[in-house]
Structure prediction request, 226 residues.
Amino acid sequence: GEDVEQSLFLSVREGDSSVINCTYTDSSSTYLYWYKQEPGAGLQLLTYIFSNMDMKQDQRLTVLLNKKDKHLSLRIADTQTGDSAIYFCAEMAGSNTGKLIFGQGTTLQVKP
Amino acid sequence: DGGITQSPKYLFRKEGQNVTLSCEQNLNHDAMYWYRQDPGQGLRLIYYSQIVNDFQKGDIAEGYSVSREKKESFPLTVTSAQKNPTAFYLCASSIIGTSNYGYTFGSGTRLTVV
Prediction:
């Protein structure tokens, strides 16, 4: 079945770049997503990438997709303390079923 | 402003009680979802509904029930059969057929058994 894996924790210094990695199993995924969750809050959509793209850039965020290896990454440039949160990778299950499969989430800790 | 509203933000349940968590959206989204979040376990799907008066079980439906009588509303009842209900519950909605928007999430309800 579908599965999404992420490392659980990443710690960086303020001003450095952060790279959060994700692997997924469903090769028919059409869209892949990155969500951010701040403490005690819901998830907020950060960005998404369509499966026929290799890269997408949006201000400080860069998403890289390696479809051959089923590997997705989120790079945050110039990481700030306000970026401290849990980041979830998600894939659309099957072909446009509407169901998202989420990873376990990566907790990003930004040290001043 | 359009959005998805969960209430209450905090809920306390006594042993053996049923409690209902509210989820309302005014985004005109077709589909709605309930997830449970436990520390270090990510999000697990409880129930989802893609159309009014129809819903499907997710991965951990035992001890929960839902209804979808209106497009805007998808309440979740945590029954006394759910043995470990303490968790953070998230409701989400989406448009079916337009995948690039993903899900819109509510702000969550934290349920604690006392």
